[in-house]
Write a structure and sequence with these properties.
two-stranded antiparallel ribbon; elongated; homotetramer
């Protein structure tokens, strides 16, 4: 069957999450550079079609722990170091999505779909 | 409202497309290396949860044209150089998706949703 | 033969250029988001060892032309859209490097090596 | 001072290492997909100017340990999971470089420079 409009909206939401994650995973990050990276991630992905709002929060304690574990001054960005909220608007459908730690693993999920 | 299972399946399908695109965009590619890159893209993304099948086809003429235009021996991967088909299986729902050129621009879309 | 210290310094400089380019190539960019991306690129790469200073300048006219050509609101980052200057300090050797357009193509080069 | 030819050769070698690392870091990888990814990395980077030979070896035990630790079927590529050897030829200078684990951390280095 052809997809419904809400299904297409969820597909668009997923595209933005995969883009955000795999574009920026691996970026060198430290407490000092965390804010500029989070801001760039938000504004970069908000350029994409149907992407109404992106909020990236660096998990400071997890970042500091990763750097301490590496015995270095910085580490590389992974999903464990950030929380993300994203709102997609697609042909009258609003999709709210997020990425947060769940049982020790970063989980991307659809929180709500409103027609 | 909470998402339905088919909506979640479409979200998962979108994640895989965004991942595939932004992980590999920018990779140096030539006619000689196109096959190994396409194979790696397929097998890498098939590792992700719910991803049943990925097919990446390099658009050879577009690749050769991009290289000729650059006056070089290779170019960098963009969405204009590949076609992608992907099948997602999520809790009994099958989602078929594809990326192909549409009006001169690479378009990712949901082709069918089967419960 | 074993590398000299200045040769190792130049190797380190090259690593930073390759990192900067391939980490961020493909990022969605528009005039509105250009500044935050440039700032994040600078601060991210400055985290890397021996990297004293990074300056990323977006070539605004080239960005606007790429967006106009695509008939879209944004485009994806390539080397044609930025100029980069970078200073590496490695065991008493300073290496100045840059990326700028040269004959229609973005060229990364070593500008000076000072012991 | 202007760079010498061997210094420029080392700069080119560094570019290839940074490219290889940051293009592919974050790629989903499992024992089953490791070979295709290694082959694609080799052929992709060999496209770049002056890059004579690239060999990527996946560290199978480290990969299996990372997957077991994550409690998943795959993980994401980091420098800890691969060893790399690369030969650069630049205007009569041959540079041999490698990335391997050193004191628990992946280290990129110049092994030899031959004029």
């Amino acid at each position: 069957m052809d997809p419904t409009t809400p299904q297409q909206a969820c597909f668009e939401a997923g595209i933005k999450f995969g883009s955000l994650y795999h574009q920026f995973a691996g970026t060198p990050i430290s407490p000092a550079s965390a804010d500029s990276l989070a801001a760039a991630m938000e504004e970069a992905i908000e350029n994409q079609p149907f992407c109404e709002d992106v909020t990236v929060s660096v998990r400071t304690e997890a970042l500091e722990a990763a750097i301490a574990e590496a015995g270095a001054d910085y580490t590389e960005l992974t999903g464990r170091l950030i929380e993300v909220e994203m709102v997609i608007e697609y042909e009258g459908v609003t999709v709210e999505t997020s990425m947060a730690m769940d049982d020790g693993y970063p989980l991307m999920q659809v929180d709500a779909v409103q027609e």
